[in-house]
Amino acid sequence: MGNYDMSLPPGRTYKYYSGRPLFEFGSGLSLTTFSLDCHRLDQEAARGNSSLAFSCDISNTGSRDGDEVLMAFHSAGQDIRAAAAKAGHPVPIKSLVGFERVSVAAGRQVLCLLELRKESLLLVNSVGDRVMYRGERSILLRGGAGQQANFTVVA
After folding, report:
1. In 3D, which of 78, 75, 86 has the Cα closest to residue 123?
2. 3 compared with 136, residue with greater pLDDT
3. How is the chain split among helix, strand and coil, in percent rounded to 5?
4. N or C end of the chain: smaller count of CB under 10 Å?
5. Within 10 Å of residue 25's Cβ, how many Cβ atoms?
6. CA gap 83, 73 in Å, rounded
7. In the prediction, which pLDDT does 121 show?
């Protein structure tokens, strides 16, 4: 009961749990169904910018009006994980870095723009400072219904 290290196997919370959860973090119940079609905006221009931008067409494929939550997760690549391990601190499997809730009428589609500041890619080191590790990482865009899109980012 006195060990609060969430990263010790099998891990605690969605950030560190390495097993297969019954329901993933952010999964929700809905009386309708949705589909996602996501794209990264300005891929070349974003390299020097302080933010990453994504657009998602969220379609209500069901027969009732409903709300969908678009979530953005950050997942560090292997080179970043190795550098963090060398520095002596764990790296989450994934971390929620942004979200948008949208209402979509039955049979309709809504365009959702999601902008992530590069600060959301920082990791917390062993002394509590936020650090940017250079390397490849993934941005995972996921809806509450479980559909997802994965984008690789080098920063």
Report:
1. 75
2. 136
3. 15, 45, 45
4. N
5. 14
6. 20
7. 92
How far apart CA 74 and CA 116 sit, in angstroms, is: 10
Model pTM score: 0.88
Residue 23: what residue type? F
**CATH T-level fold of 28-154:** Immunoglobulin-like (2.60.40)
Q: Where are the alpha helices (DSSP H) in 45-130?
A: 78-87
- Tens of pLDDT, residue by residue over 141-154, are 999 877 888 899 88
Q: Indicate the residue type of 99.
A: F
pLDDT tens-digit map of 45-83:
445 567 899 999 999 999 999 999 999 999 999 999 999
